[in-house]
Amino acid sequence: MSLFDQKKHMMVLFCSPNSHGSTRMLLDSFMGEFKDRGDWQVSETNVYELNAHPCTGCRACAKKEKCTYDDLDKFDKELRKCDLLVVASPVYNDSFPSPMKAVLDRSQRYFEARFSLGIRQPVKKHRDAVLLLTMGQEEDFPVEVTAHQLQRAFSVMNTTLRGCAVWDGTDLGRKNLGPAQQKARALALEILEDM
Asked: What CATH number is associated with residue 126?
């Protein structure tokens, strides 16, 4: 086994159309704890560039363990091998931006594998996940909505949401940035300690 194979795999889903904005700043705070470690391999996917086809409810995945559309096959392969999934996203209308929502809707393939095809564990390898959220308002409801959406999808993806760091009130500037960065770093350290 090579040293490369021994590394832990982190998959980052970057869900903002602004590559250098608030979401990137919060993600960088989380990633800073992994920066100089040689035991992690990181792959980042921009969900806007992923351009996931919306789920059409065709139920092909209820007949065979695959999707009609192959645009997320690489994503599925990365997901199955990763040890840590990081979702970094702004909040749009109390939820995820539409490209991330499309990815979540396409998790139907895992629900169908479990409940229509009877595959007890559609995704064999367990992973932890972290949610990093940025939003203009200062309220809890969008955090509850996005965390609930992830937990529903994760329930058939052998994934556990470990925690969430939120930079809220971004419309007011950077006044809440410090606590959000501290939470992001604390989550990273907790995961590194456990893994």
From this structure: 3.40.50.360
